[in-house]
Amino acid sequence: MNELASKIREGDARALARAATGIENRDPQALETLRELGPFEGHARIVGITGPPGAGKSTLVDALAGALRREGKRVAIIAVDPTSRLTGGAILGDRIRMQKHHADPGIFIRSMATRGSTGGLARATADVVRLMDRAGYDYVVIETLGVGQDEVEIAGLAQITVVVLMPGMGDDVQAIKAGILEIADIFVINKSDLPGADRLEIELQHLHKPMIRTIATEAAGLDDLVAQVSRPVLPLHKPHRPGGLCYLDHLGVAVKDLAAAVTFYETLGLAVTHRETVATEKVRVAMLPAGDSRIELLEPAAPDSPIARFLEKRGPGLHHIALKVPDLAAAVERLRSTGARLLNEPRPGAGGHLYVFVHPASTGGVLLELIQESET
Question: What SS3 class is residue 84?
Fold first, then answer.
């Protein structure tokens, strides 16, 4: 292992913080450190904490960390915060959150700015979670922004997703039912000493999920929560990779009206988990998971967008097929050696992943996108 990886395994918090910063900035040395730590992955329990603003998520995370520490567990907390327009950093930072844990070497707190990502998760969150796991923490707790229905991305990253609500929400529960309520493994009714806790519990009973009442400011109900987040879970499902080489990531579909297309797919039970405007391609993107793969809806963001030209020439329809590969650079070298026609050099696209397009003339008639697999 390199020196930074060795220090991280030795419990050096400064080295860990430096690596986390490097991963957020996609620094090659930090990413190499993450790869070197790969053999240590799989120890941590990954817990997602989400829910609407005002439910007391930060206070609950603080209390949960304290309860886990009393059991001798090491805890890493990743708090995904809004982005400062001035600095690009997290507005709510380590200095504000959970000050009483500052001197505890068994708790590591990291604030991450969303940097424009939707879905409640920063682009590099998944890699930072892997870093904490490989650093030897027993629990990695991810607290998301809590902005409503877009929070569903947490379910794809956490082994157990905790949705935090509070009494008195009334119609708000109905408004978010199609979003974060459906991803919950556990419901926490925080501030349960307030009027309306019984009514809220009744409104949630039909979802048939474990339900815990807490008063996070008093650490009430925390033993029950620890028991639930510590229960055995099935391993996170990973897509099958034929031959260990690549797998289908998504189908790209060009559409004239993104909102109308999303509405159609939602009638089939699919839900948008990511929206983004990719400036380099002048395109607006909506991602809808469908089994192990996804459907990527593409709407032109400018008249000279490649998607606009595609629509003008061929009309709406299948635009490309995307495969994820474990080593994009190696795949590009192999393709070039065979004379395949590449349309661009590897560059960041939707979700921050590196990608390259291969011309239909080289693939049998379909535009092919190759994406660097983010898991290392």
Answer: coil
Assigned CATH for 44-229: 3.40.50.300
Closest by CA to 98, choosing from 129, 143, 130, 59, is 59
Interval 268-285: pLDDT, tens:
878 877 788 888 889 999
User: C-alpha 136: how far from its chain's center?
Assistant: 21
Domains of the chain by residue range: 1-40, 44-229, 242-372
* CA dihedral for 92, 147, 50, 295, sign (positive or negative): negative
Residues with Cβ within 8 Å of residue 38, at least 6 apart in sequence: 134, 376
Q: What superfamily in CATH does domain 242-372 come from?
A: 2,3-Dihydroxybiphenyl 1,2-Dioxygenase, domain 1 (3.10.180.10)
The answer to whether the beta carbons of residues 329 and 31 sit under 8 Å apart is no
Token pair 């001197």 in the structure block, residue: 103
CA angle 283, 287, 290 (to 5 degrees): 145
- For residue 90, the 8-state DSSP code is B
Q: Are 173 and 204 in contact (CB under 8 A)?
A: yes
Pairing outcome for strands 247-254 and 293-300: parallel
Distance in angstroms (rounded) separating the CA atoms of residues 171 and 174: 5
Answer yes or no: are the C-beta atoms of 80 and 122 closer than 8 Å.
yes
What are the residues whose beta carbons fall under 8 Å from the beta carbon of 11, sequence distance 6 or more? 105, 136
Amino acid sitting at position 130: R
What is the distance between the alpha carbons of residues 224 and 57, in angstroms, rounded to a whole number? 16
The pTM of the full predicted model, rounded to 2 decimals, is: 0.61
Average pLDDT in the chain: 83
Sign of CA dihedral 180, 182, 184, 187: positive
Question: Is the pLDDT confidence value at 234 over 80?
Answer: no
41-89 confidence digits (pLDDT tens): 888 999 999 888 888 999 999 999 999 999 999 999 998 865 443 444 4
Question: What is the C-alpha to C-alpha distance for residues 210 and 186, in angstroms, rounded to an integer?
Answer: 5
Q: For the CA atoms of the chain, what is the radius of gyration?
A: 22
Sign of CA dihedral 143, 148, 153, 159: positive
pLDDT higher than threshold 60 for residue 376 = no
The answer, yes or no, to whether residue 18 has pLDDT greater than 60, is yes
